[in-house]
Amino acid sequence: ALAGHVHPAVRLRDAGGTSPRFPCFHIRQRLMVLPALGAFTGTKAVHAALGDRVVAVIDEETLDVTAAVAAGAR
Q: CA–CA separation, 50 vs 47, rounded Å?
């Protein structure tokens, strides 16, 4: 199933110590929530469960950040 309107986002810590938020795809076993990419949309932080994938949209490119999200949850 595909879903939208939740506007998932992921917060990643950068080398400068800040943690910007990026839109992301949140992928579960039978569900993928699509990101909102517009400038006038809010975001909802993703809380990934074991087995989920998180793919961030950064500068018009996609980056699988599943490992970074899992490490931050510990």
A: 10
